[in-house]
From TrEMBL:
This is tRNA (Cmo5U34)-methyltransferase. Keywords: Methyltransferase, S-adenosyl-L-methionine, Transferase. It comes from Bosea psychrotolerans. GO terms for molecular function: methyltransferase activity. InterPro entries: Methyltransf_12, SAM-dependent_MTases_sf. CDD domains: AdoMet_MTases. Transmembrane segments: none annotated. The keyword Aminoacyl-tRNA synthetase does not apply.
Length: 238
């Protein structure tokens, strides 16, 4: 299998997986809304009620991409790929709970491990890009996704898209979000320190657009924002 930067995979260990469902919804205000709108954007692009094969990259954790899209579009089928076994185990539990396992192929590994054919009708890359250190790793995963999509196929890309230290007000508001959910002041500072050291988001929406362009996608359309987080849709160029 292709080997990613080890720190981007190892941090999603069993302890992280166990707390993911709760912590992700605190860290991202509008977590469920983002996933629901992502499904709606894909359906609006592909056409409602049509069969589709959807690639879900980084599906481990709650598999919320599949839960939301699977409820909206009963004819969609999914290939879910994630390099973390604990996170993939959690996704399996949720998909079983929502009766979506029969419509989902689960793969432990990386996008680069998938065959180039048949190509997918759409893809999602949600909450992944900012965990990859450096532009080279970001370009590599976008290239790998693009080569597995049909021409004109849409990609939902979502994640943090500003350098954290460049937006002190957003960072402070993020701390207040944790305080709102019961974190003590020292815990808030610890979380903010971990955020500053633990991820490498693109530095702007323009940089995201440049990464997408380099991988062969058209200009993105942004449809969701929550502090540092943003979600957009872009089509693979024909």
């Amino acid at each position: 299998m292709t080997t990613p930067p080890p720190e981007s995979t190892q941090k999603f260990d069993p302890s992280r997986a166990a707390e993911y469902q709760v912590q992700s919804r605190i860290a991202l205000a509008g977590y469920d809304a983002c996933h629901e709108l992502s499904a709606c954007m894909l359906a609006a692009t592909l056409g409602p009620g049509r069969p589709a094969q959807v690639l879900v990259v980084g599906a481990g954790g709650g598999a919320q991409e599949i839960v939301s899209a699977g409820a909206l579009e009963p004819q969609w089928r999914f290939t879910a790929v994630d390099p973390s076994q604990p996170m993939l185990d959690l996704a399996l539990e949720r998909l079983r709970e929502h009766e979506l396992l029969e419509r989902t192929e689960m793969r432990l590994g990386y996008v680069e491990d998938l065959p180039l054919e048949p190509r997918f009708d759409a893809a999602t890359l949600i909450g992944v890009l900012h965990h990859l250190p450096g532009d080279a790793a970001k370009r590599a995963i976008l290239d790998a996704v693009a080569t597995r999509l049909k021409p004109g196929a849409p990609l939902i890309l979502a994640g943090n898209r500003y350098a954290y230290a460049s937006e002190p007000l957003l960072l402070a508001a993020w701390g207040e979000r944790w305080r709102m959910f019961g974190a003590a002041p020292e815990e808030v500072q610890a979380k903010l320190g971990k955020i500053l050291q633990g991820a490498d988001p693109p530095r702007s929406e323009a940089e995201v657009a440049g990464l997408l362009d380099g991988a062969g996608f058209d200009a993105p359309s942004w449809f969701f924002s929550s502090l540092f987080w943003g979600a957009c849709i872009a089509r693979r160029r024909v």
